[in-house]
UniProtKB/TrEMBL annotation:
Protein function: Required for morphogenesis under gluconeogenic growth conditions.
PANTHER family assigned: GLUCONEOGENESIS FACTOR-RELATED, UNCHARACTERIZED PROTEIN YVCK-RELATED
Protein source organism: Rhodococcoides corynebacterioides
Family: Belongs to the gluconeogenesis factor family.
Protein name: Putative gluconeogenesis factor
Gene: yvcK
């Protein structure tokens, strides 16, 4: 087990996959989680209580929970979602627990740390900002004239829009970062961004000024993990290259050491050449590896862990275009 200090940025199922991988080789993990969700249980609690949306934070805690039976039981309980048709229908237990802890303790970070102790979390889970954020996007293809863009607000609305997302912003403008998340990035050995919903889970991190500054200042090795494919709504029709161009447009000064891509997602040939040129925008090399699960199209935690652990240890992949043969 490595002592590498790892920070993973993201949200939702993408961050859950990253954390499930990272915990296999490090016991010093910090998750920095997006707080823009406005749908489902999180959206209801955000609207009713004025709190930051807890759902992605809860999932990160569950991903880092201890392996002993008690911790796993609590992780399962926190992930449990109520059924039925009453007021609790659709709420997850963990969201309600975090809401209660936040009200009692008066601070969402203290609430997350306390619940982390209950779960014997291997590290720490932090919100990217102490305030709930709203995603605002310029979307084309919703008007008769394809050149005309319409402003769409809200994470759920952006994720499900039938149009083409051109650019996203955060509201409030220039939101604050959680101080602890900035410190974690500054002292990290390895920083991982992605995979996840590109416009609502990945890009928001580079749009918070203090987080962007910390990413620029840190001496950590920085790794970008690409999605296995485009997502309906947000990135329908996107190539791997297009994902990188969009990130570069939103964070033109961002520097990254490695871009991890599933070998089967980008077949050898001209597409890989285009992707290499896009990665060069960040000063990065492309690391190809078999990181997809055979059963479902999600990242396999064990396979992703092997690649990330090697990169954390400083393995030079610049002359290894395909690392699918890594042990």
């Amino acid at each position: 087990m490595s002592s590498a200090n790892v920070v993973a940025l993201g949200g939702g199922h993408g961050l859950y996959a990253t954390l499930s991988a990272v915990r296999r080789f490090s016991t010093d993990v910090t998750a920095v989680v997006t707080v823009a969700d406005d749908g489902g249980s999180s959206g209801r609690l955000r609207a009713e209580l004025g709190m930051i949306p807890p759902g992605d934070l809860r999932m990160a805690l569950a991903a880092l929970a201890g392996e002993d039976p008690r911790s796993r039981l609590w992780a399962d309980v926190l992930q449990h979602r109520f059924g039925g048709n009453g007021a609790l229908a659709g709420h997850s237990v963990g969201n309600l627990v975090l809401a209660g802890l936040t009200e009692v303790m008066g601070d969402p970070v203290l609430a997350l740390d306390e619940l982390g102790r209950v779960l014997d979390v291997a590290g720490r889970v932090l919100p990217m900002s102490p305030v709930a954020l709203e995603i605002e996007a310029d979307v084309s293809g919703l008007e008769d004239d394809p050149r005309v863009s319409r402003v769409i607000r809200g994470q759920v609305a952006v994720a499900t829009t039938p149009g083409k997302v051109r650019r996203v912003r955060l509201r409030p403008t220039d939101p604050p970062a959680t101080e602890a998340s900035v410190r974690a990035i500054e002292r990290a050995d390895l920083v991982i961004l992605g995979p996840g919903s590109w416009f609502s889970s990945v890009l928001p991190h580079v749009l918070v000024p203090d987080l962007a500054a910390a990413l620029a200042a840190t001496s950590a090795r920085k790794v970008l993990v690409l999605n296995l494919g485009p997502e309906p709504g947000e990135t329908a029709g996107f190539s791997a290259e297009r994902h990188l161009h969009v990130l570069s447009q939103h964070a033109p000064g961002l520097r990254v050491h490695h871009v991890v891509v599933d070998s089967a997602s980008v077949p050898p040939g001209s597409e890989r050449e285009h992707l290499a040129r896009a990665a060069a925008l960040f000063g990065a090399d492309v690391v190809y590896a078999d990181v997809a699960s055979d059963a479902v199209r999600t990242h396999d935690p064990a396979a992703l862990a092997r690649v990330l652990a090697a990169l954390a240890g400083g393995t030079d992949s610049s002359d290894r275009k395909d690392t699918s043969s890594w042990p």
